[in-house]
Design brief:
Layout (H helix, E strand, L loop, with lengths): L1 H13 L3 H16 L3 E8 L3 E8 L10 E2 L4 H9 L3 E3 L21 E9 L2 E10 L7 H23 L13 E4 L1 E4 L2 E8 L17 H26 L5 H13 L5 H10 L4 H17 L4 H21 L13 E5 L4 H4 L7 E6 L7 H9 L3 E3 L13 E5 L4 E4 L3 H24 L14 E5 L2 H9 L5 E5 L1 H5 L7 H15 L4 E4 L26 H6 L1 H14 L6 E5 L5 H20 L9 E5 L2 H5 L1 H7 L2 E4 L1 H9 L17 H16 L3 E4 L7 H10 L3 E4 L4 H9 L3 H11 L5 H14 L13
Parallel strand pairs: 9-10, 10-11, 11-12, 15-16, 15-22, 16-17, 17-18, 18-19, 19-20, 20-21, 21-22
Antiparallel strand pairs: 1-2, 1-6, 2-3, 4-5, 5-6, 7-14, 8-12, 9-13, 13-14
The chain binds phosphoenolpyruvate (PEP) and magnesium ion.
Phosphoenolpyruvate binds next to strand 16 and helix 21.
């Protein structure tokens, strides 16, 4: 049975489309279970189920027989969400006979539901003339198979294969992960490779010198293209981001790919074939690496390979006309593609692969373009020029959206634009409640581009500077002086306001190309402070660079990520004091910066008091804290529904952190995404957080909400919320309270959808 199961699932997985997959299922199940009939019914629209494939019933009934959950035994399986196993089906009160199928002669019936994410997608049925009850092992076989097939069917359904059965293509939602916040409505511009590296024909090379010259000409043309793209982006990117383009250029050199291809040409292979061979080898090598960051580099190699191949094949690249509101879509978008769309026309980005950690997402955030990553079910090859909505807050994409949905999202866009405009009035006003309770709003930064936006939006400090971002954009650890220059830019831009620099937070989903970390369970592994304490040489260089950079400005705060125990804090403090004393001895006029601890794991919540007693401030990383408290991977779209930062357990933890921190006389801030959610910000203020630090784009909205409410109202809301049993009720309660306070237009964007 196990072998049959495996081979059926493998065959179904390899099927080219849904109808083929279903035909395989019915034929193979019928054979394995030695029955006379196997059929599959799938959900069609809201409430009906259609016979989609059968081996045994009249094939003409496929696509014709349709029933509601109230009809027949199939409907009964749908409603009960469990198998129905009958020796003599016609005797069952729910038995309904569909003459088109010719099923009257079958007596035994076993139907099992196909359930995916709690939804009944369909029913798998076997039937037989002989009156007999299917035995326990047969029932278990069908249940196991149906559970395994549910995901495959759901994926095929999402890909719109059902439309092939003549149904109308309608609004569809595809789930990914947030790449950059914001909402966009526009037309899909799908970036498909100009040439296919796997389809290059082999040709022998007759004149080696001419062929090498031809290769060099093509490489020069691509170099020129890349430089042009780099130039177009120059004003929007800083040095680190520009370095990506330099890396591309270096790959074309004789010392790299160019040289390898030349060698093959010398052995008699034509340039195009040699090029494709070399690229595919490198791509395969990168793709097989365990490290997520390095695997993503395979996309860069492929992108470069396709560009050169286009020239080698003497293809004329068509000049694409970009619609006014272009949403760039691709299987694996790369940094260089972004530069090709005029900035004024690029409103959104969707990448089928990748995560919030991909270079594309990092650049999109710097450029403030709503982005969704990892939309794995999006049938990207079929949506060119179709209308899309990109919801970069929730990480979802809608194709062919209904008018109502467009209106909903248009309202959010208008609201956002109004808020940004309103900022001109709000920018210099304090963030305080109607009854004059002051809450400083700080920003989270990583790229230089964030700094400008933050200052424009009236940030009062930096609550989290993610130092790993400049590290991610390089091909080696930056040296002390390089780091000092980068940090100085941040500190100077905000001086005299404080800038909280987090020490290198790698591991988990963030790994450096030049320092790969391979682990089975990276989020519970070598992350954050654990890595840097194991490498004091890296930690000391970074801390020295930070302290040196603060000379004469004195607005630096140092923050430690992923601390889970007191010895980690103490060890880090010893290293920081050592760096500080060394710098004093070297003659620098510096002050010792405050040293804070991020509270982002449950252990730190329960030791917040002890940590606070030894640190200068606490800052909650609610992104990680939520993932660790709820045991929900923050990057996994499959469990995204369970990731609730307003879960009662998270709220209780937050309240406890604030009171434990304050009991030791230290300030407590929060720098996870939660602080940028207007409704949540009210609760956080009521809990007593001293600072809320967020993405610059969310700052105006949070300020408006806080300025529209009294602290007393916020306190009452918090008391009410803390009695509620689940995140959904809490969301509803917060939204209602905001409505009652007359600030409905500032609700959390798109969350109510
Ligand atoms: C957090 O975990 O909330 C946080 C701010 O850090 P990061 O998102 O960079 O892990
Ligand atoms: Mg974190």
């Amino acid at each position: 049975m196990l072998n049959s199961l495996r081979s059926i699932v493998q065959e179904v997985n390899a099927a080219r489309d849904l109808p083929t997959a279903l035909d395989i299922i019915v034929a193979r199940v019928k054979l394995s279970m030695i029955t006379e009939v196997c059929s599959v019914y799938l959900r069609d629209g809201d409430n009906g189920y259609v016979l989609m494939s059968t081996d045994g019933l009249n094939p003409d009934a496929v696509g014709v027989v349709k029933l509601s959950p109230e009809q027949g035994l199939v409907g009964r399986v749908v409603v009960r969400e469990e198998p129905i196993n009958l020796e003599y089906a016609p005797a069952h009160p729910r038995y309904q006979y569909f003459p088109e199928t010719g099923e009257e002669r079958y007596n035994a019936f076993l139907g099992v539901p196909i359930i995916h994410h709690r939804q009944v997608l369909g029913v798998l049925v076997v039937q037989q003339t002989e009156r007999r009850r299917f035995d326990e092992s047969e029932e278990a076989f069908l249940v196991t198979l149906s559970a395994q097939l549910a995901g495959v069917i759901a994926h095929a359904e999402a890909n719109g294969t059902l439309a092939a059965f003549g149904q109308q293509a309608a609004e569809a939602k595809f789930v990914g992960v947030p790449g950059a916040s914001g909402v966009a409505i526009g037309e899909a511009v799908v970036i498909a490779p100009a040439s296919d590296l796997r389809a290059v024909l082999y040709k022998p090379c007759s004149d080696i010198d001419v062929e090498i010259e031809f290769l060099q000409r093509c490489l020069a043309a691509v170099r020129e293209d890349i430089k042009q793209v780099g130039k177009k982006l120059k004003t929007r990117l800083n040095r680190e981001e520009q370095a990506l383009f330099d890396a591309y250029l270096a790959m074309l050199d004789d010392a790299s790919l160019g040289g390898e291809v030349t060698e093959r040409i010398k052995q008699g292979t034509c340039a195009a074939y040699a090029w494709a061979e070399v690229i595919l080898e490198h791509e395969r090598n990168f793709s097989s690496m365990d490290d997520a960051y390095l695997r993503e580099r395979a996309a860069d190699v492929r992108d470069l390979g396709q560009r050169v191949l286009a020239y080698l094949q003497e293809e004329v690249q068509s000049c694409r006309v970009y619609p006014e509101k272009s949403i760039l879509v691709g299987e694996e978008l790369t940094a260089s593609i972004l530069g090709e769309v005029p900035k004024s026309k690029l409103v959104g980005i969707v990448s089928v692969k990748g995560s919030g950690n991909s270079h594309v997402a990092i650049l999109a955030r710097a450029m403030d373009i709503p982005t969704v990553m990892g939309a794995v079910d999006l049938p990207y090859t079929r949506i060119d020029q179709r209308q899309l909505i990109v919801d970069g807050y929730q990480g979802s994409v809608f194709s062919d959206p209904s008018e109502a949905l467009c209106e909903h999202y248009s309202a959010i866009i208008v609201e956002e634009q109004a808020l940004v405009r309103g900022l001109e009035a709000l920018k210099d006003l304090p963030c305080e409640t109607l009854d004059h309770h002051r809450v400083p709003l700080w920003v989270n930064t990583g790229l230089m581009a964030d700094v400008v936006r933050s200052l424009e939006r009236g940030a009062e400090g930096v609550g989290l500077y993610r130092t790993e971002v400049p590290f991610l954009l390089r091909d080696r650890f930056p040296g002390e002086e390089e780091q000092r220059i980068i940090y100085r830019e941040q500190l100077e831009a905000f001086a005299p306001e404080p800038v909280t620099m987090r020490t290198l937070d790698i591991g988990g989903d963030k790994s450096l190309p030049y320092f790969p970390i391979e682990e089975d369970n990276p989020f519970l592994g070598w992350r954050g402070i654990r890595v840097t304490l194991d490498h004091p040489e890296i930690f000391l260089v970074q801390v020295r660079a930070m302290i040196k950079a603060s000379e004469g400005l004195d607005n630096l705060r140092i923050m430690l990520p992923m601390v889970t125990n007191i010895p980690e804090l103490e060890a880090a403090q010893v290293l920081i004091y050592r760096a500080y004393n060394e710098l004093l001895e070297e003659g620098h006029k510096i002050t010792l910066p405050p040293i804070g601890v991020m509270i982002e794991v449950p252990a730190a919540v329960y030791q917040a008091r002890e940590l606070a007693a030894r640190a200068d401030f606490l800052s909650v990383g609610s992104n990680d804290l939520t993932q660790y408290l709820l045991a929900v991977d923050r990057n996994n779209a499959r469990v995204a529904d369970l990731y609730h930062a307003l879960h009662p357990a998270v709220l209780r933890a937050l309240q406890q952190i604030v009171s434990d921190g304050h009991s030791q006389g230290v300030t407590v801030s929060i720098c996870g995404e939660l602080a940028g959610d207007p409704g949540a910000a009210i609760l956080l203020m009521a809990m007593g957080f001293d600072v809320l630090s967020m993405n610059a784009s969310n700052l105006p909205r949070v300020k408006s909400v806080i300025r529209g409410i009294t602290l007393q109202q916020a306190d009452e809301l918090l008391s009410e919320v803390m009695l509620l049993p689940d995140a959904h009720e809490i969301n509803v309660c917060v939204e209602r309270a905001l409505k009652e306070a007359g600030i409905t237009r500032l609700l959390r964007p798109s969350i109510s959808n």
